[in-house]
């Protein structure tokens, strides 16, 4: 597959208040049409990463792009092309190991 990735993060990070970083310097390219499992130990930043990539959290640093466009909450059309399913709580944005796919089911 060629072209822009479905999801790209560059230098993405989230810090809560003056405390520890939940995620730092995350660079990620997710090609369109791929299914990806995100695994890691508790506290590794999996849920924080997913919440940043769908706009539930604002990053402290870095950027998120969906289909080549910067993630902006005032442009929900880009978010309509992304699915987010939390493993433990599918109907909420609670902390869980997520799964994502593109809107065309790939």
TrEMBL record:
<dbReference type="Pfam" id="PF00005">
    <property type="entry name" value="ABC_tran"/>
</dbReference>
<dbReference type="GO" id="GO:0016887">
    <property type="term" value="F:ATP hydrolysis activity"/>
</dbReference>
<dbReference type="GO" id="GO:0005524">
    <property type="term" value="F:ATP binding"/>
</dbReference>
<dbReference type="InterPro" id="IPR027417">
    <property type="entry name" value="P-loop_NTPase"/>
</dbReference>
<comment type="similarity">
    <text>Belongs to the ABC transporter superfamily.</text>
</comment>
<dbReference type="InterPro" id="IPR003439">
    <property type="entry name" value="ABC_transporter-like_ATP-bd"/>
</dbReference>
<feature type="domain" description="ABC transporter">
    <location>
        <begin position="23"/>
        <end position="89"/>
    </location>
</feature>
<keyword id="KW-0813">Transport</keyword>
<protein>
    <recommendedName>
        <fullName>ABC transporter domain-containing protein</fullName>
    </recommendedName>
</protein>
